[in-house]
From TrEMBL:
Domain HTH cro/C1-type per the UniProt entry, residue ranges: 12-66
Keyword S-adenosyl-L-methionine attached: no
Keywords for this protein: DNA-binding
Record flagged with keyword DNA-binding: yes
Identification of the protein by name: Helix-turn-helix transcriptional regulator
One Pfam family here: HTH_3
Protein's organism: Microlunatus elymi
GO molecular function terms noted in the UniProt entry: DNA binding; DNA-binding transcription factor activity
Superkingdom to which the source organism belongs: Bacteria
GO cellular component term of the entry, any: cytosol
Transmembrane segments: none
InterPro entries: Cro/C1-type_HTH, Lambda_DNA-bd_dom_sf, RmlC-like_jellyroll, RmlC_Cupin_sf, TransReg_Diox_bact_type
Amino acid sequence: MAGTASAVGRRLQQARTRRGLSLSELARRAGIGKGSLSEIEAGGRNPTLETLYALSLPLQLPITALVGETGRSNVSGHDEGPVIIADSGMIAITLDVRHQPDGSVVEVFRLEFPDGCEHESPAHGPGVRETLTVSRGTLRVGPIGRLRSVTAGRTRSWLSDRAHRYRAPDGPAEAVVVIISQPT
């Protein structure tokens, strides 16, 4: 895990430097402590999913730019990337990341939710769209205040440029989500 923390810290520091942000300024914009940010950049702390999202927004980057895009191979032969476990218990596994010629980024994640899990995701960048297909169980998903139930085999899409939520009310659930970020 130390290698992962070091790699995330290195990517974070490079992204911050490219954006011309000081440690203090990025910490302020992301709403996290300067000491915590310094520890993450030094590879001494593994950031949570929530922290990664908080950092990716002011850096104007998809989260996969910080955690990495590829990793081990799964049975189907597609690359699987880093596994991120949120404080809520939700598990996000990077399946694919594609950088499009127009500058947009398409990220594909497999999401796993334990029974009763409720995960709130902060707003992503302007115009970011999520399309989620449930593969097992039932999820209530969407922008806060507009959650809809999605059962296995069904799909829901929404703009995720504001806070949104995933909830597994009736047992464990799994889904695949495609996140499309527009060029900045």
